[in-house]
Amino acid sequence: MTLSNLLWLFTVAAGPVLLGLAIAYGIAHQRKLTNVEQKQSDEATRELFEANDGKSADENGQVEPTRHPS
Fold this sequence. Notes:
Blueprint: H1 3-28, H2 35-51
């Protein structure tokens, strides 16, 4: 096997391994919310949902205006 083939093999094999390690590290070190933070998050979400009359926002954060029949 030539040196260029070995380098290519290392690149192809090491890439997914490094990506997997980075993902595993991120998952392992993801911080959990405290009870107070979780309650604040839930309340803020509820307030936003109620402010939009229960409508979902699009990908730009915009809510389609309510159309009333004429």
